[in-house]
Amino acid sequence: MVNQILSVIFGVKDSKFRTDDDFVDRMSRRYTTTLMILFAAVVTMQQYVGRPIHCWCPAQFTGAMVAYTDSVCWISSTYYVPMDHQLPMPEDPKLMVSYYQWVPFILLFMALFFYIPSLLWRFLSKRSGLNVAATLDAALAGQRTNYADIRDKTTRYMVHNIERYLAMRTSRGVNFHTRVKYQVAKYCCFMWGSFYGNYLCLSYFFIKLLYLANAVGQLYLLDLFMGHNFHFYGIEVMQRLYSGDDWSSSYRFPRVTMCDYQIRHMTQVHRYIVQCALPINLFNEKIFIFVWFWLIFVVIMTICSLFKWIWKLCFWPGQVNWVRRQLRPMHDIKLNKDALRHFTEDYLKRDGLFVCRLIGNNVGNIVAAEVLNGLWSNYSPSRRYHEDDTIPRDEQHHNPMNSAQKPSSSLRRATESAIHRLHRMDSV
C-alpha cells in the first residue's frame, strides 16, 4: 500500500524495496510520508463528504440561506471567543481560525518535504560511480535465497561493484598537493570527494542533516502557519493531562467559533454574527497532537542516528576493530594488524566501510562479513598475514573471489533475476 500511494503522488515506483539507507531514514521518507498522506485523505473526506461546519442561524433563515452561511463562514474563516468573554467589536482584533481549510494541503506538503531528501540521496549516490541501491538489493536477494550458488553469485557481484568503485577512485594520478589533501582527508572526514574516500559518507551525513533540518523546520513552519506557539503544543497537552484539566478544550483547535459576514439585499447591507461548530477540528486536533509528538520523535531519532554514523565512520580504531571482527570467523590464522589497518584506512576508506555498514544494518552482519572477506581475499595476499604465518596453499593457486573482479554477463543476469524474484515476492 505504501508503494502504491507514493507512486501515485510522487511518481516513485521502487520506494518499498529501497534499502540504501537506514531505518531512521525510512521513518522519514516512508512512514512519515505515508502517515501524512493518510491524514490528508481523512481530513479531505471529512471536508468534501461530510459537513465540516455547522452554523446556528436565525430562525427566519431558509435552507438556502443556512447553506450559504455555512459556505461563507467556511471560506472566509472564523474567530474564537471563549464563552465567558464578550464579543469583540468589528474593529477590535480577533483570534482568527484560518488554517482548517488548508489542513490537507499542509499535510501533503509535509509529506513532500519528508520525501525530498531521499530523492537527493538517490541522485548523489548515483553520481558517485557506485550503484549503492543495486548493491544493497543484491545483498538482500542473496540473504533471502535458499540456493548457495545464487548467494555466491550475489556476493561476487557486490564485491565486484565495490572493487570497481575503489579501483576507479585510486587509479587517478596524484601530485604532492593531492597527497597532502588526501592525508588531511584521512584524519578529517570533512574533505568531500570520491578520491578521498569520503564522497558517499559525507553525502549521507548531508542527507541526515537535511532530514533533521526538515523535521525541526516543519515544527516552526507549523507554528508560523497555525500560530499560538505550536512548537509547545505537545507540552501544553501533557501539562493539562497532568493537572487534570480538559486537554481537548483548546483555543488552537476550537470546536465552536464565531463568524461575521454581510449580506447585500437590494441597496441595504445587513451584518450577521453567527455561532458555528467545527466538527472537523475533532480530527484536526487529534491529528496534530500525533504530528507534534511524531516530529519530536523523528528529531530525536535522527540526531541519535547522525551521531551513531559519525562514530562509526569518523574514528579509525573503531572501524579497524569492526573489520577485524567481521573477518576473524573466516580466517583461522592471525591477521596482520598493519595490513588490516592499511586495508581499512587506505583501501576501503570511509566509502567502502559505509557500504559494508549499510549491508550489515539492512541485511545482516553475516552478509557484510562475506563481502568484506571477498574484498580482503582480493587484497594483496602477501600482506594479509603475519610474517611467521604462511599463506594458505589454496590461496596461492586459486582465490574463488578473484572471479569477482570481472563478473560474466551470466553472473549479472543471475543476480538481476534473483533481485527481480525478491521484488515480485514482496509485492504479493
UniProtKB/TrEMBL annotation:
Residues 386-415 are annotated as: Disordered. The chain crosses the membrane at residues 31-49, 102-121, 199-221, 287-311. GO terms for cellular component: gap junction; plasma membrane. It is found in: Cell membrane. Residues 386-398 have a biased composition (Basic and acidic residues). GO terms for biological process: monoatomic ion transmembrane transport. It is a multi-pass membrane protein. Keywords: Cell membrane, Ion channel, Ion transport, Membrane, Transmembrane, Transmembrane helix, Transport. Structural component of the gap junctions. Belongs to the pannexin family. This is Innexin. The lineage of its organism: Eukaryota, Metazoa, Spiralia, Lophotrochozoa, Annelida.
